[in-house]
UniProtKB/TrEMBL annotation:
Alphabetized InterPro entries for the sequence: 4Fe4S-binding_SPASM_dom, Aldolase_TIM, Elp3/MiaA/NifB-like_rSAM, PQQ_synth_PqqE_bac, PqqE-like, Radical_SAM_PqqE_MftC-like, rSAM, rSAM_sf
Pfam families cross-referenced by the UniProt entry: Radical_SAM (PF04055), SPASM (PF13186)
Pathway it works in: Cofactor biosynthesis; pyrroloquinoline quinone biosynthesis
Source organism: Paraburkholderia saeva
SUPFAM superfamilies according to UniProt: Radical SAM enzymes (SSF102114)
Function: Catalyzes the cross-linking of a glutamate residue and a tyrosine residue in the PqqA protein as part of the biosynthesis of pyrroloquinoline quinone (PQQ).
Keywords noted in UniProt: 4Fe-4S, Iron, Iron-sulfur, Metal-binding, Oxidoreductase, PQQ biosynthesis, S-adenosyl-L-methionine
Catalytic activity: [PQQ precursor protein] + S-adenosyl-L-methionine = E-Y cross-linked-[PQQ precursor protein] + 5'-deoxyadenosine + L-methionine + H(+)
Designated name of the protein: PqqA peptide cyclase
């Protein structure tokens, strides 16, 4: 395992400030508080350890500094960003600064009065999440009764003239409903539909055994999506990305570590990707203590995986490294224990068999089956977060499976 507490001289030589492009996309995670309890939430499982939130003035400083650096796209996210009463103030500031703004929301709390205020403040775009096209599954997966409310919110968003992305995270429970999810998005007048196959970080990694689909489910869903794309043309643009575990090459994660994306967590920690906090041995600088320019260009955390100098074999000498940059550091850590390894999604990785076994385990049961030995699905809530944070083990079930695979046991 790489010692992340010490700077890697290779990395230092690769990451000269004058070679680093400015950030383009700022994600402001305003709060980890959320009325929903999604089983696939990408927030850290120990989010209750990070409950402090920046003040309005501190967020405004972040927006100004990020814009001065060159960031142009701004997402307000969370948790649920509508729980911040100053959201409209921040949107107004962002508008004045010239950001293109997107609100990423569950819709809970998005009343007509707030839509009026957000419109007046200059919000450009809204991304509304659904868990499924059926009330039963939507409400089960979020552990709330919110389906009907979300439908009313979708109608209000359109009535206020906002462009709308409908987002639905896909997994073995709802992949068979893809046609109905598309029909729902069309009926609601969404301009875009993001069918986001689950990425296995945070709560989704903890619930991986329950959420992992079969290859057949994915193939069938993709065929449905392609059929709809032909039928509906430009009426609604549908995004569908196959999950990493079913590929043999990793994705160019975040378009590169510290390349275009700058995330600010509710407490002010600056992150090169949403889930970077799960990596050991890295201290993420806080915007309340360090200027954003210094964080982006000079901090150890943002320079650690820039360039190619940090890579080990097989990535170091691989002729494809400029295409995928070795994949995802968080996935490499979660599945191999070392964030400097090749993303094991890659079939050149000596640990690729690990991914194959997880997929194979999913294929051995029908989507309805759940092995008796599995723990129940874990909802994202404060009690579970505190329990996971207290045990220092943020991913018990998947970790057990990962460790068993590493020991050479079949799952
Ligand atoms: S995924 Fe669900 S629980 Fe997590 S922040 Fe979004 S709405 Fe809240
Ligand atoms: S070995 Fe590394 S650089 Fe090469 S294709 Fe695989 S992940 Fe990408």
């Amino acid at each position: 395992m790489t010692d992340l507490s010490r700077p890697d001289p290779n990395t230092q030589t690769e990451a000269k400030p004058d070679a680093i492009a400015p950030p383009l996309w700022l994600l402001a995670e305003l709060t980890y508080r959320c009325p929903l309890h999604c089983v696939f939430c990408y927030n850290p499982t120990n989010y209750t350890d990070h409950s402090r939130e920046l003040t309005t003035a501190q967020w405004i400083d972040v927006l100004r500094e990020a814009r001065a650096l060159g960031a142009a796209q701004l997402g307000f996210s969370g948790g649920e960003p509508l729980l911040r009463e100053d959201l409209e103030v921040l949107v107004g500031e962002a508008r004045q600064l010239g950001f293109y703004t997107n609100l990423i929301t569950s819709g809970i709390g998005l009343t007509d009065a707030r839509l009026d205020a957000l419109k007046a403040a200059g919000l450009d775009h809204i991304q509304l999440s659904f868990q499924d096209s059926t009330q039963e599954l939507n409400d089960f997966l979020s552990s709330t009764r919110t389906f009907d409310l979300k439908k009313r919110v979708a109608a209000s968003i359109k009535a206020h003239g906002f462009p709308m992305v409908l987002n639905c995270v896909l997994h073995r429970f709802n992949l068979p409903h893809v046609d109905r999810i598309i029909d729902m998005a069309l009926a609601m007048g969404a301009e875009y539909l993001e069918l986001a196959n689950t990425q296995y970080y945070g709560w989704a990694h903890t619930n991986r055994a329950q959420l992992m689909p079969t290859a057949e489910q994915l193939q069938e869903a993709e065929a449905v999506v392609n059929r709809y794309r032909k039928e509906i043309g430009e009426r609604c643009k549908i995004f569908f990305v196959v999950p990493d575990y079913f590929e043999t090459r990793p994705k160019r994660c975040m378009n590169g570590w510290g390349a275009v994306f700058l995330g600010i967590a509710p407490d002010g920690a600056a992150l090169p990707c949403h889930t970077a906090r799960s990596l050991p041995g890295l201290t993420f600088p806080n915007v309340t203590e360090t200027p954003l320019r210094e964080i982006w260009y000079e901090s150890d955390a943002f320079n650690r995986f820039r360039g190619f100098g940090w890579m080990k074999e097989p990535c170091r000498s691989c002729d494809e490294k400029e295409r995928d940059l070795g994949g995802c550091r968080c996935q490499a850590y979660l599945l191999t224990g070392d964030p400097a390894n090749a993303d094991p999604v890659c079939d050149k990785s000596p640990e690729h068999e690990h991914v194959v076994q997880v997929v194979r385990a999913a294929a051995t049961r029908t989507p309805e089956q759940q092995p008796a030995k599995e723990q129940p699905i874990l909802f994202r809530n404060d009690a579970n977060s505190r329990r996971l944070a207290a045990t220092g083990d943020s991913r018990p079930q998947a970790q057990d499976q990962d460790q068993a695979i590493s020991r050479g046991e079949r799952t």
